[in-house]
């Protein structure tokens, strides 16, 4: 079983700022979202053998809270920047509305949602996928194929890149994919690595 969770709301999410690799904390709402995610997983009977998260504390803190709710604070945790949010480059730290005023609605939309057009100094979703997917295939998928129950706490775009592969989405389809903060997405993966079942837990 593979469970993916986008971190709870961060302080910069709340302020409508581009975050990327900037290392910001969860907001109070984000902490509560993480607790609800952990509670939902506990109520559904989930336990995990190993956890993966990014090198950024908003994802790590979300994972810590979930595992605390599950009473599983002692399981192995792998932290790697391969699972980091996409790097927003020159946009990082800027208010999204201010960015639209500076560069125009259409250009900012292209940077945020296109598959292969990066913002200045940053990564596209394609760039993000090129680090996320090899890590998934090398480190995470083999464990899932062995029958391990794995949870991944990461970010909107690193998880979009992974879900694009898991759900076999086109470039156009993935641009429409939005992931809510703190909502667990559960995948049952067959021995060949294909998806047998997918569902979201309500929190």
Automatic annotation (TrEMBL):
Catalytic activity, EC: 5.4.2.11
InterPro entries attached to this UniProt entry: His_Pase_superF_clade-1 (IPR013078), His_PPase_superfam (IPR029033), PG/BPGM_mutase_AS (IPR001345), Phosphogly_mut1 (IPR005952)
A Pfam family per the record: His_Phos_1
Entry binding sites for substrate: 6-13, 19-20, 58, 85-88, 96, 112-113, 156-157
Keywords: Gluconeogenesis, Glycolysis, Isomerase
GO molecular function: phosphoglycerate mutase activity
Site positions (Transition state stabilizer): 155
GO terms under biological process: gluconeogenesis; glycolytic process
Pathway assigned to this chain's UniProt record: Carbohydrate degradation; glycolysis; pyruvate from D-glyceraldehyde 3-phosphate: step 3/5
Enzymatic reactions: (2R)-2-phosphoglycerate = (2R)-3-phosphoglycerate
Active site: 7 (tele-phosphohistidine intermediate), 85 (proton donor/acceptor)
Similarity section: Belongs to the phosphoglycerate mutase family. BPG-dependent PGAM subfamily.
Function: Catalyzes the interconversion of 2-phosphoglycerate and 3-phosphoglycerate.
Subunit structure as annotated in this protein's UniProt entry: Homodimer.
Protein name: 2,3-bisphosphoglycerate-dependent phosphoglycerate mutase
Taxonomy of the source species: Bacteria, Pseudomonadati, Pseudomonadota, Alphaproteobacteria, Hyphomicrobiales
């Amino acid at each position: 079983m593979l469970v993916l969770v986008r971190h709870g709301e961060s302080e910069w999410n709340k302020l409508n700022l581009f975050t990327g690799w900037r290392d910001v904390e969860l907001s109070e709402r984000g902490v509560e979202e993480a607790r609800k995610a952990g509670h939902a997983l506990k109520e559904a009977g989930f336990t995990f053998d190993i956890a993966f998260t990014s090198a950024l504390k908003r994802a790590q803190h979300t994972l810590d809270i979930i595992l605390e709710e599950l009473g599983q604070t002692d399981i192995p945790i792998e932290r790697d920047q391969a699972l980091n949010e996409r790097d927003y480059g020159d946009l990082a730290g800027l208010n999204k509305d201010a960015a639209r005023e500076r560069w125009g609605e259409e250009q900012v939309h292209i940077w945020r949602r296109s598959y292969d057009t990066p913002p200045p100094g940053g990564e596209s979703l394609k760039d993000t996928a090129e680090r996320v997917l090899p890590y998934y295939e090398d480190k995470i998928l083999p464990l899932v194929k062995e029958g391990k129950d794995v949870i991944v706490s990461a970010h909107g775009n690193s998880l979009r890149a992974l879900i694009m592969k898991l759900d076999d989405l086109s470039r156009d389809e993935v641009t429409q994919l939005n992931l809510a903060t703190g909502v667990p997405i559960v995948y049952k993966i067959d021995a060949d690595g294909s998806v047998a079942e997918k569902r979201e837990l309500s929190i």
